[in-house]
TrEMBL record:
Gene3D superfamilies reported for this sequence: NAD(P)-binding Rossmann-like Domain (3.40.50.720), UDP-galactose 4-epimerase, domain 1 (3.90.25.10)
Keyword Ribonucleoprotein assigned: no
Name of the protein in question: dTDP-glucose 4,6-dehydratase
Signal peptide positions on this chain: none
Cofactor(s) demanded: NAD(+)
InterPro entries: dTDP_Gluc_deHydtase (IPR005888), NAD(P)-bd_dom (IPR016040), NAD(P)-bd_dom_sf (IPR036291)
Protein family according to the UniProt entry: Belongs to the NAD(P)-dependent epimerase/dehydratase family. dTDP-glucose dehydratase subfamily.
Native organism: Corynebacterium doosanense CAU 212 = DSM 45436
EC numbers for this chain: 4.2.1.46
Length: 331
């Protein structure tokens, strides 16, 4: 039996991961600071031990790292728009926090998996036929993506300099249950459930390579079990042709609504992300289960819409404050 320490396990992807890891037979400790993005309700009914604390707390991190076989590192400040308002927690958590975890893992020779993002590669033109591969040079745009890029570099340096047994995954945009209402898809779904108008930044021509959170987490488990130490794996579900405008229109269609409004664009807004995940598919045999726009995203979105409809008590407490903050920025 392998014991995992899942950092950020009370957040969106982390909590879904804890569920999948428990189902797969792992023992799970969670370390989470319960920032605005963490929620104990995400772990309700799950047989995981929650330790409330900061990944920058050296003593706590040392104690927890010592008792597990593997650290799976999800904890981060994760929202681009917030990083434009105040980058400081992004540097603290994403860079310094990752450093603290790496040092503890080095001391105890703990296997480490670092969860990162496609945003470290920057963006592509809409008509660029290329996708990001594991060898694409880093070119992050926002304080969020710059701090994630920094953390990826730290992990690679710890592998090379200290022989840390680590892997990295870079994944595209996730959607699914338990995602905070500040993010694009849950924001629009809950806007419609709340009688508000969906909000599209700028023209909405931007493209995100959407993947269902369960597909992302299945890939992380695959890398934990079969990935080669020191390697990086891109994760994506080949949705790099779907614009934000198309996503919002699909949400409106699925929810029987007919209108959305264009609001102020995000400064420095990345245009297009596109992941080449062929290395992960070829070497480790992973395949996404929710695939292509017509069936995959439709099916995944229907499931996600149902979840937000059925779980209003989960998202309701955050909704007004999130919308107030967006309104102050003209969004
Ligand atoms: P999230 O914001 O929903 O959750 C982050 C979690 O980390 C929260 O539970 C929060 O309380 C916790 N946390 C924050 N700072 C902490 C600290 N200092 N110490 C301990 N815990 C802390 O984020 P998410 O969307 O679930 O993303 C999880 C990871 O996946 C991040 O590393 C992110 O960069 C990466 N990622 C996200 C996406 C996406 O589409 N959301 C895509 C690719 C990669
Ligand atoms: O690509 C992976 C990244 O995806 C992760 O690393 C980040 O943690 C995650 O937050 C996400 O980043 P994005 O900035 O792409 O996601 P967000 O949900 O904020 O926005 C998705 C797109 O939708 C983006 O082009 C901005 C746009 N948008 C967003 C909001 C909140 C809107 O048009 N309207 C909105 O109301």
């Amino acid at each position: 039996m392998t014991r995992l320490l899942v950092t950020g396990g009370a957040g969106f992807i982390g909590a879904n991961f804890v569920r999948s890891a428990l189902e797969r037979g792992y023992d799970v400790d969670v370390l989470d600071a319960l920032t605005y993005a963490g929620n104990t309700a995400n772990l309700e009914g799950l047989d995981a031990e929650l330790h409330i604390g900061d990944i920058g707390d050296e003593a706590l991190v040392d104690t927890l790292t010592r008792r597990v076989d593997t650290v799976v590192h999800f904890a981060a400040e994760s929202h681009n728009d917030n990083s434009l308002t105040d980058p400081s927690p992004f540097v603290r958590t994403n860079v310094n926090g990752t450093f603290t975890l790496l040092e503890a893992s080095r001391r105890h020779d703990t296997r480490f998996h670092h969860v990162s993002t496609d945003e470290v590669f920057g963006d592509l033109a809409l008509d660029d036929p290329n996708r990001f591969t594991e060898d694409t040079p880093y070119n992050p745009s926002s304080p969020y993506s710059a701090t994630k890029a920094a953390s990826d570099h730290l992990v690679r340096a710890w592998v090379r300099s200290f022989g840390l047994r680590a892997t990295i995954s870079n994944c595209s945009n996730n959607y699914g249950p338990f995602q905070h209402v500040e993010k694009f898809i849950p924001r629009q779904i809950t806007n419609l459930l709340d009688g508000r108008v969906p909000k599209l930044y700028g023209t909405g021509e931007q493209v995100r390579d959407w993947i269902h959170v369960d597909d992302h987490n299945a890939a992380v488990l695959t890398i934990l079990e079969r990935g080669r130490i020191g390697e990086t794996y891109n994760i994506g579900a080949d949705n790099d042709h779907v614009s934000n405008k198309q996503v919002i229109e699909l949400i409106c269609e699925l929810m029987g609504a007919d209108g959305y409004e264009h609001v102020a664009d995000r400064p420095g807004h990345d245009l297009r992300y596109a992941m080449d995940s062929s290395k992960l598919r070829r070497e480790l045999g992973w395949e996404p289960q929710f695939t292509d726009t017509d069936s995959g995203m439709r099916e995944g979105l229907e499931q996600t819409i149902r979840w937000y409809r059925d779980n209003e008590s989960w998202w309701r407490p955050q909704k007004d404050a999130v919308e107030q903050a967006y309104a102050e920025r003209g969004q």
